[in-house]
Amino acid sequence: AGQWARAVAILRELEEKCAAPASKLRQVADAMAVEMHAGLASDGGSKLNMIISYVDNLPTGSEQLQRLSSKACCPAAQVVPTRAAGTKSVGGARTGPRITSPIHFVPAAQELFDYIASELAKFVATEGEGFQLSAGRQRELGFTFSFPVRQTSISSGNLIKWTKGFAIEDTVGQDVVSELTKALERKGLDMHVSALVNDTIGTLAGGRYYDEDVVIAVILGTGTNAAYVECANAIPKWHGLLPKSGEMVINMEWGNFKSSHLPTADYDNELDLDSLNPGEQIFEKMISGMYLGDILRRVLLRIAEETALFGDTVPPNLEVPFLLRTPHMSAVHHDTSPDLRAVARTLQDVLGIHNTSLKTRKLVIEVCEVLAKRGARLAAAGVVGILKKLGRDVAPRDGTPMPRTVIAMDGGLFEHYTRFREHMENTLKELLGDDVFSSIVVVHANDGSGLGAALLAASHSQYL
Ligand code: ADP
Q: What integer pLDDT is reported at residue 451 of this predicted model?
């Protein structure tokens, strides 16, 4: 009985530390908007890089897609370092291989880019009769790269740092496009990178193709990030000519957001200290798919250490970082069977914990609920921060109707973790109120980043 009380106390303490009531989320949203301003004012002025994407014209929807197919995936699909998309044909675009690689896979930079080039070579080899490259023309590529890159033009940029468990020293600071270009040459592939596109920018552009009111894109996958359409004259650090459209798409790199208002528990601090990038990507570490499962593991480990609910000794698998993954967590969380079979199975198969009581299984679900809810509510607060920056978080004072705002969402966490998605949408409604919320549309832009990158490559073709 004493040990049950101890387990419940651990859960209650977690709930208390992770609580994200509306009042707190408003502070988070305010802090996000403040950091956005600071990051737009100067490079290095904020935790938010607020990267200028050099995309000042988004697809209109009138682009002609010749065909969209051939999404190749390599077998070890865990973390996506890059997505390469889009060989252009006249007025058309198609999405290419999505290149993925297992977590903590740390090759030398050259190996990584050679790997991407070889996947592209395979993709090119699958092109059928239908695809004809005009004589004397190079294939053009939209290169989606989902890590922070300081862009120097639409088709060049230097890697700021790795995230999501990647760490390849010699690439930081280098131009990822010239690294890829060298790898393409080594492979003998005649291809030109026309656009270097962060996956959030790709998702925004892909979303725009279908809906002209898309102004924000959010990725909730292995990592998390957001992009949005900013007024070009609201970017003090932009010293170039004002684009004709008057707009510039900004890649926020919001995963690196940090604020004293974030509801943090000891597990978060420990996860951060044990990570490859301590002190960085704090928002991401509380929200995204790479980390949620590992926070859950840390809470369960504590319960195992302080009670005998998971057996008399601590199950060794509970001590293995990242063994318990977010898809396991969501399988546990969504279990509605009377005897919580999926919970029992996951505990057994992944963690080697046998013979759990129904009560213990319920407790595990409650821990999932606390962590998923916190992550989802923080992600919603981030979106409200962007809406605030855009002046779209409140109804216009002059009585004109609210503009329609479409948010393109993508990523495995958003797509598959239903409870997370529901919490996020409910929190948006809670924070914005029914009226403003009714002007907001959240769409799932399923792999929109590939399409977006292809369209951007086409519109930045060297042959235009
Ligand atoms: P990435 O973010 O790596 O580019 P995805 O958008 O496909 O790629 O997201 C993959 C991530 O989504 C995984 O790392 C995992 O954290 C999360 N995920 C995948 N499937 C599920 C699931 N069933 N439930 C919860 N999260 C999932």
A: 87
Residue 74 has what pLDDT?
23
The protein residue with its alpha carbon nearest to ligand 1, atom 24, reads 327
Name residue 118's amino acid: S
- Taking the centre of ligand 1 as the mean of its atom positions, its distance from the CA of residue 330, in whole angstroms, is 11
- pLDDT per residue as tens digits for the range 65-122: 653 332 322 221 122 233 344 433 323 445 566 665 444 455 678 888 888 888 888 8
pTM: 0.93
Residue that is written with structure tokens 């690689």 in the block: 101
Strand partners, 225: 219
Between the CA of 412 and the centroid of ligand 1 the distance, in Å, is 3
Which CATH code is given to the segment(s) 56-210+452-459? 3.30.420.40
Considering only CA atoms, which residue is closest to atom 13 of ligand 1?
222
Nearest CA to ligand 1 atom 25: 327
Mutate which of 415, 423, 449 for ligand 1 pocket (most atoms within 8 A of beta carbon): 415
Cα 79 to averaged position of ligand 1 atoms, centre (Å): 8
- Report CA(411)–ligand 1 centroid distance (Å): 6
- Residues near ligand 1 with C-beta < 6 Å? 79-80, 146, 221-223, 289-290, 326-327, 330, 411-413, 416-417
Residue with CA nearest ligand 1 atom 23:
327
- Please give the distance, rounded to the nearest whole angstrom, from the Cα atom of residue 415 to the centre of ligand 1: 8
Least confident of 80-84, 271-275, 442-446: 80-84
Query: How do the domains of the chain map onto residue ranges?
Result: 56-210+452-459
